[in-house]
């Protein structure tokens, strides 16, 4: 008995000594990436989408990492739009876990609370979802692969004004992206002769859309323009729109693609039919790169699952991260990383061609006019028109870098 125990202790000691003296080079390079994302709480569905994009990209491309380079993803749960939590998590990731890159964030307030830390610690921060325009101006170490609300709302307003919609009532969530959406739509619409009948802002958490949509209905607009966070909030908005009979009253619903988010469309039901949106991604897009992407997504997560834009944000975010890791052979230098991200492009993303504007570090991508239609019994965001590359109009109009 004693002999056997002694043997085991000796083996353990020998293993420890070996691990201590193994040459560092032989163990290779580990790149640590901290992902701050919403994994619990009422918005966990959005975080799950983003994480699926990260996982799918890793599964398809991990073997392409440079020899000896390992990628370690450290996931942290911000639980929703909670800037204090996000800031604490980012601090821990940087000071304790020594991550070389940060990524993620569904919510704008969280991106804003992490921005100063990215600057102080010089840790490049890849925004995979949060969409308020000014986020990228808050740190030179931020690059965004997702979208801005101005990118969709402004061209949608121009389209609406030119297509028989004369009077609009705006209903948006009362925080960064909602305010951006409202302001972008109002500018694009009124500059082109449209009239805003009113605008209300709804709380982000636990919203009851009834009083707001009733007010919109009473104003008798041609259309309601809306942005709310994708996921269950969008489904709730859609259902209330139906229950209050706005459609029967001849009022159209238009908005950013968040309100007809692909993974929730079937839950929304026929009330979503005809809803017209402007956006950068639709699961129904027939581009070969997207067809292959959707096929791989369904193979991984189930045949009834539809990838939403957050999936594509996580997926393309990882593509950008792989690019900087490969170009530096795993030795991440913050300034070199930012130089590599500026102008980074992918001509064949599931959403079409994309690139990072070297001046603003923000995403430039195609916007598509879409309408919800039934195709083979399924609700889909059918792309009707491709507007080509759109740069964030807020930065273009305000000359913000
Ligand atoms: C954001 O907080 O920036 C945000 C969240 C959910 C969305 C879009 C933008 O669907």
Describe the protein.
This protein has 401 residues and is an alpha/beta fold. It has 14 helices and 14 strands. Strands 6, 7, 8, 9, 10, 11, 12, 13 and 14 form a nine-stranded mixed β-sheet that branches. A five-stranded parallel β-sheet has the order 2-1-3-4-5, with helices on both faces. The longest helix has 20 residues. Bound molecules: P-hydroxybenzoic acid. The site of P-hydroxybenzoic acid has 11 residues, from helix 7.
Essential attributes:
401 residues, alpha/beta, nine-stranded mixed β-sheet, five-stranded parallel β-sheet, 14 helices, 23% strand, globular, binds P-hydroxybenzoic acid
Give the gist of this structure.
This protein has 401 residues and is an alpha/beta fold. Helix content is 42%, strand content 23%. α3 crosses α12 (309-327), α4 (83-95) runs parallel beside α5 (108-121) and α12 (309-327) packs across α13 (334-341).
